Amino acid sequence: xxxxxxxxxxxxxxxxxxxxxxxxxxxxxxxxxxxxxxxxxxxxxxxxxxxxxxxxxxxxxxxxxxxxxxxxxxxxxxxxxxxxxxxxxxxxxxxxxxxxxxxxxxxxxxxxxxxxxxxxxxxxxxxxxxxxxxxxxxx
Length: 139
What we know:
The structure is a single chain. The chain has 139 residues and is mainly β. It has a domain at 44-126: CATH 2.40.50.100. It is built from one helix and ten strands. The chain has one helix at residues 103-109, and strands at residues 3-9, 15-21, 44-45, 52-53, 58-61, 67-69, 73-75, 81-83, 87-96, 117-126. The longest helix is centred in the C-terminal third of the chain and has 7 residues, at 103-109. It is found in: Mitochondrion. Keywords: Mitochondrion, Ribonucleoprotein, Ribosomal protein, Transit peptide. Belongs to the bacterial ribosomal protein bL27 family. GO terms for molecular function: structural constituent of ribosome.
């Protein structure tokens, strides 16, 4: 703590000692994004085409079904695609044949009944099992 003494003289010429106190810390300057309440969700592809995955590995996180589950891929309640078996990821673009009676399909794809719709499908090709079995005894 630092103090500065200032000598003042009043009308009757008697010196008065005033003490002025300075701040001991600097004031905090503003920083960027201090009031940021939105955290990024990091949605999208988690695994690229051709990579190896284990069972239960997340492949895609999404809000709306932009990517669809293919062979050995599960579809979570929040739209997450995950691998059901260990293997290699293969992404394909296939013809999409929706159920036109469904209200959600009518709302999203309305007016596209006569068009060909293509969607991306995530597939997991299982790893081949080893062939090192040896017959010990016949039953």
